[in-house]
């Protein structure tokens, strides 16, 4: 399971409240009720990452310590990695099972690899001219691997455990310096007919294969959109925070649950070593069942729990959320 401690964008934290007691309780639920044996702890604040990682390790979970920079320059990313690598090593030295993840989709989510002021602009630049797309991807691969060479060296000086990077396939990562091959694999309608074969091919490699970043939202048709699932969200022009949906989308928790069940079955049967559902909860996307359905941001939220406003849930009366159908689907898959 992937657990969000808060993304940092231009100094703003996406997760406003971070209570260590709540964090530990949620991680215990991830272990006991979702039957997970590993958790990918993501975010941009090193203190929060370390707190959540320690709580997870204390519960006996394998910890994938995953700093997740957004809109950062390469030197800022390296600084974050150096800090987090020291924290991850301290935790490992104390007996925890730790894997360090040296970033996620760096070329798209950050500056310095592709032109553009947003992930959408960067992907558009890369894919916009089909006649030179292959050349553009080769050039990107050179830049990404040059940076990862520096990142691996910086991390290895501080951390002695297993190391990976959560890549997009078009980044053309050289996996030689890494212990685990990790891809963000999201099935869309365009690739659904060949998705299983692609997973099988990747799993045949000489190193263990991990899959991260896969998930979808709870509105009808979300699974067909793949990585474009959040395009239905309008954002506040000043803060960048999610504001409302751009149209009325039918709530479809069963569709989200089926999508995750199908992908987990593929990953299990085709030889994937580790798979991390994205994600437990996504702050900023509250469930608003009353009023305008465009205000129910949870329909577009990728969490397997729906965040409540001003009250706690019934399934877990001490938690400010309620499980979605996807929660039960993941629990059934992992229990088996």
Secondary structure layout:
Elements lengths: L1 E3 L3 E2 L2 E2 L6 H13 L5 E6 L2 H13 L3 E6 L6 H20 L4 E7 L1 H4 L9 H9 L5 H24 L6 E5 L13 E4 L10 H9 L5 E6 L7 H4 L7 E3 L6 E4 L7 H17 L4 E4 L27 E3 L13 E3 L1 H11 L1
Parallel strand pairs: 1-4, 4-5, 5-6, 6-7, 7-8, 8-9, 9-12
Antiparallel strand pairs: 2-3, 10-11, 13-14
Helix pairs in contact: 1-2, 2-3, 3-6, 9-10
Put the structure in a nutshell.
Helices cover 37% and strands 17% of the residues. By secondary structure, the chain is α/β, with parallel strands linked by helices.
- Poorly predicted regions are none
In total, the number of strands is: 14
Give the overall shape, derived from the CA principal axes. globular
Instruction: Compute the number of helices.
Output: 10
Mean pLDDT: 97
Q: In which order are the strands of the major sheet placed?
A: 1-4-5-6-7-8-9-12
Q: Could you give a short account of the major beta sheet?
A: 8 strands, parallel
Q: Into which percentage range does the β-strand content fall? A: 15-25%
Order of secondary-structure elements: EEEHEHEHEHHHEEHEHEEHEEEH
What distance separates the N and C termini?
Answer: 16 Å
Helix content: 25-40%
Radius of gyration: 19 Å
Which structural class is indicated by helix and strand composition? alpha/beta
